[in-house]
TrEMBL record:
Family: Belongs to the DnaX/STICHEL family.
Location of the region described as Disordered in the Swiss-Prot/TrEMBL record: 390-431
Biological process, per Gene Ontology: DNA-templated DNA replication
Name of the protein described by the UniProt record: DNA-directed DNA polymerase
Catalytic activity, EC: 2.7.7.7
Segments forming domain AAA+ ATPase: 36-178
Amino acid sequence: MYQALYRKWRPQTFADVIGQQHITDTLRAQLQSGRLSHAYLFTGTRGTGKTTCAKILARAVNCEHPVNGDPCNECAACRGILDGSVLDVTEIDAASNNGVDNIRDLRDETRYTPAQVRKRVFIIDEVHMLSIGAFNALLKTLEEPPEHVLFILATTELHKVPATILSRCQRFDFRRIGAEDISRRLLDVAAGEGIALTEGAARLIARLADGAMRDALSMLDRAAAAGAVDEKTVTAALGVMGQDDGIRLAEHLKTGDLAAAVGLLDEYYNAGRDLASVYDQMLGLIRDALLVKTSKTDVSALISPAYSVKTLQALCDGLASSTLIAWSRIISDSLDHMRTAANRRVEAELCAVRLCSLGADNYDTLGGRVEALEEKLKNGVPVQMVPAAAAQQAGDVPPPPSDDDAPPLPGDEDAPDWAREEDGTAADTPKQEVTLWSQWQPLLEALTGKINIGAHTNIKLSAKGVLEDNALVILCEDKMTAILAAKEPTISVIREQAAKLNGAPIKVKVREAGEELVVKKNIAVDELIDRAKSMDIQVKQL
């Protein structure tokens, strides 16, 4: 009969336990010196070896021929405990035996001496599930058990165990097992089972196991059902995102390519992957990228083994740390919404929209926004320009006012009658020719130190000066830059310095890119003026 890998490959000696040497060395030393405690408490996250070490300890204290503190697993006592025929070693599941009566029965059993081995061992798994009454019933026996009794308690939630129980036990904290240790163990198990496991797949499973060896072996068991195991097999079997998939999605978010990002999410969704898990893995990638981006020392030992430092450095080119932090905040908020969302796919796609169109509000500070723009420009990453019309449809604040109100745009329903032809459509006139102002760079230099440094940096990075009808128009790529440029006293200083460079006063306007000024022929008004003049009516034109 087939046996699950995590059961088949359960360590049989302390030397076989992975990643818990600080505990196994201590237990072996106690066994060799004979200085055993009467009660032990093993605590730590799932799959780290608590129950395994408890069973090894139960055999070691009763072993007839121990080897350096390890059980021999060959004597009658060891074999009997392994096959369950020795009734003096009892394993109790506190989740289903958590009442006062269950503990009273256990307490009564401690009175009897062992029949087959030296010590009676009671292993209470998930001890935090006991009721308050059950804990109280256990207290006295746990504090002063008979000489022939050993208690081993195990729990994943230490905070739920009363302090009175903790003070009566010798406590051992089991750590999460390192990804490298898990990866090596998986390769050893795969070799023993004849499974073709690649190193990349072993590293991916180790990262997904999150420090739990049992989880890693269970994942390998699932992935190995199809035969050879590589990264593609693991991602398909477990419904997770591979290393290259994570980098691809991050690259699309980096360049603001929403169509490609949503296309990838659609691909993952159709492949049966949990989109919440996809974003959860993206948080891990962002965490590793932040370490590489901000640390001035080697962090290769701190990042996930699924990604290399070189790969993360390439991803970080053009990404500011403030952008990565903004991403992590948006993803965390979306993950919270996904837990209660009626349609998780829609929520995942909305998250991609927010990630691809970061606005000033997504950054903690203006300095973070400026840092993001500088990083993009330095690495040649295109900066997305959102038209003002789209911003208004999204419910944003309208663009800042300029010196003159621009004539209504073609097709505008609120345009006056004189701006429309007789058939009700707007006059079809070409846009006015736009040319860059030759003095724009000297103006930027002249503004240094004369206006707010944040406004100056934003204008320098996200705006350009053009001439329209002998007026200087500052076209801003985003709403924040337009607001800063139009705010007093910044706009007054700009007018003053522009007039000096122009040699004469010049009109200055601020507008977001996309609000191009359109000149319309006022045909109806011209006809009305001509008729008035023909009738000797004096017309005053403003």
